[in-house]
């Protein structure tokens, strides 16, 4: 689960990085919450009311541009923490977090969260390390994507989703996070129509199979060739 021997992989969630006693103490500070699919957990620009520790279910983190374009910034799931920046800085939330499926979480009031961090330096350092890992990974992805065409970025995204959020089935690797075409488009800076065309090309090459909010990667070798600039 390490990344190159220098820190944890950015996909290792916050709660998984804590010692058992630290994790239980933090969870004991909050109240249980349940969110239905497509329900907002946090809203962009709103003041912080709580920090959320995700227990089950996946969420998407998005931000809206002034022209209305919505970009998919990240996926957060079991063990992850969301809303911590607004709690620590006392500034409005910088992104929107929406449930992709039913989500169970623990909500901790900002004052209780920050007080806990002050009283538990190892937990504070763990949170700082997580932020560092996420920032490094985001910088790496931006650098990689800047040198790619939309077609290459889309193939690379599907490979990343299959590695991080896929489950092997008889048909291939099925993505376990239900993303719409618009959400996929927002992740690679493309239009929904472009993503539809790319998916049709990949279906024609038997690289993927798509259904209603479902996607199975059948030929990762084809995606790797495309992501690498091949035909």
UniProtKB/TrEMBL annotation:
Superkingdom of origin organism = Bacteria
State the PROSITE patterns in the record: CNMP_BINDING_3, HTH_CRP_2
Instruction: Tell whether Transcription regulation is among the UniProt keywords.
Output: yes
Q: Which residue ranges does the record assign to the HTH crp-type domain?
A: 148-221
Q: Alphabetically list the UniProt keywords.
A: DNA-binding, Transcription, Transcription regulation
Entries under SMART domains matching the protein = cNMP, HTH_CRP
Q: Which Gene3D superfamilies match?
A: Jelly Rolls (2.60.120.10), Winged helix-like DNA-binding domain superfamily/Winged helix DNA-binding domain (1.10.10.10)
Q: Which InterPro entries match?
A: cNMP-bd_dom, cNMP-bd_dom_sf, Env_Response_Regulators, HTH_CRP, RmlC-like_jellyroll, WH-like_DNA-bd_sf, WH_DNA-bd_sf
Q: Name one Pfam family in it.
A: cNMP_binding
Q: What's a GO cellular component annotated to this UniProt protein?
A: cytosol
Q: Which molecular function terms from Gene Ontology are attached?
A: DNA binding; DNA-binding transcription factor activity
Query: Which residues span the membrane?
Result: none
Cyclic nucleotide-binding domain: which residues? 14-117
Name it: Crp/Fnr family transcriptional regulator
In which organism is this protein found?
Streptomyces odorifer
């Amino acid at each position: 689960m390490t990344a190159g021997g220098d820190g944890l992989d950015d996909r290792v969630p916050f709660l998984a990085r804590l010692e058992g006693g630290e994790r239980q103490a933090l969870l004991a500070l909050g109240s249980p919450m349940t969110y239905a699919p497509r329900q907002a957990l946090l809203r962009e620009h709103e003041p912080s009311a709580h920090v959320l520790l995700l227990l089950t279910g996946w969420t998407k983190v998005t931000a809206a541009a002034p022209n209305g374009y919505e970009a998919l910034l990240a996926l957060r799931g079991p063990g992850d923490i969301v809303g911590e920046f607004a709690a620590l800085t006392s500034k409005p939330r910088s992104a929107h977090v929406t449930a992709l499926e039913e989500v169970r979480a623990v909500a901790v009031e900002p004052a209780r969260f920050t007080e806990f961090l002050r009283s538990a330096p190892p937990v504070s350092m763990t949170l700082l390390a997580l932020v560092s890992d996420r920032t490094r990974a985001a910088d790496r992805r931006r650098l990689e994507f800047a040198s790619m065409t939309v077609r290459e970025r889309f193939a690379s995204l599907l490979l990343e989703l299959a590695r991080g959020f896929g489950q092997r089935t008889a048909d291939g690797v099925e993505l376990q996070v239900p993303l719409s075409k618009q959400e996929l488009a927002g992740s690679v800076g493309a239009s929904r129509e472009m993503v539809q065309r790319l998916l049709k090309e990949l279906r024609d090459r038997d690289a993927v199979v798509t259904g209603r909010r479902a996607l199975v990667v059948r030929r990762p070798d084809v995606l790797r060739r495309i992501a690498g600039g091949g035909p």
